[in-house]
Amino acid sequence: MLALWYSPIYTNGLDPEARFPRERYRLVKDALSVGPERGAIEFREPRLMDPEDLHLAHDPDYVRDFLNGTLDDSMVRRIGLRPWTKVIVERTLILTGGTIEAMQYAVSANGFAGNLGGGTHHAYHDFGSGYCIFNDLAVAARIAQRDFGVDQIAILDLDVHQGDGTAAIFKEDPSVTTVSFHCGKNFPFRKMRSDFDVALEEGTGDAEYLEGVERFLARELAAMNLDLLFFQAGVDALETDRLGRLSLSREGMRRRNELVFDFARAKGIPLVITMGGGYGEPIETSVAAHADLFQGAAQR
Questions:
Q1: Which of 58, 121, 122, 290 is catalytic?
Q2: Ranges of each domain in the chain
Q3: Mean pLDDT in each 10-residue stretch from start to end of the chain (300 residues)?
Q4: Which of 117, 124, 237, 243 has the least C-beta neighbours within 10 A?
């Protein structure tokens, strides 16, 4: 049984006019509710996280200004998601809470868990960017260390865009290894330095991509004594994605996921799966790939 956190506010908490495919969350939930693995997925409603825990990864002034609705307009523009709704704070705390609760479950059960959202890897310590307000991966990792005595963590980011905020937050922290496979000529255009960066050429397809991921898992990640693995599982490397610039097929994306799942299972490492990006044209191509992700996790 895969425990998967989801709330309708993931979609409803964003304005319909926002330049973001907000319906993704609802559509993926609907697909999983009728799909072949529906009996193997248990949906759970995330709670509001404790805002104080945001300070584990974020600047207190930034946290305060967001919660109070007093962020400078330039910072709001950098994040995007405008126009902001009246429940943007509630949505953000619930979305981040979903990743925290998935982490708590995965560590306690020594298994897999996921958030049908999250993976907000462009959020830095003191500002948000690229549709990301707070970095749920960083906050959940810090809570895992504080509350569960987790020592070594890896954040494996396979979104097509570099996990720049995550890399920046953990740049001085040897206890958290940051990994990013991304399109080199894509947002963010000013890259940070992850512990491991794999910058792929535009148009990279299944064979080269999968060979690189498989080799990295076998040679690099396998050599680490990990206690917890976060998987930022964006599907925007699909060839149909309007923001991706890579050329993975749906089957290639399934195989990518299987490589990560099989690695975590073989090593006995708790795995937290977050949804990441997906901007397909049509959006149904992203929805199908996101559904494949969680169905594949449920199968294992």
A1: 122
A2: 2-299
A3: 97 96 97 84 98 98 98 96 97 98 98 98 98 98 98 98 98 97 96 98 98 98 98 98 97 98 98 98 97 95
A4: 243
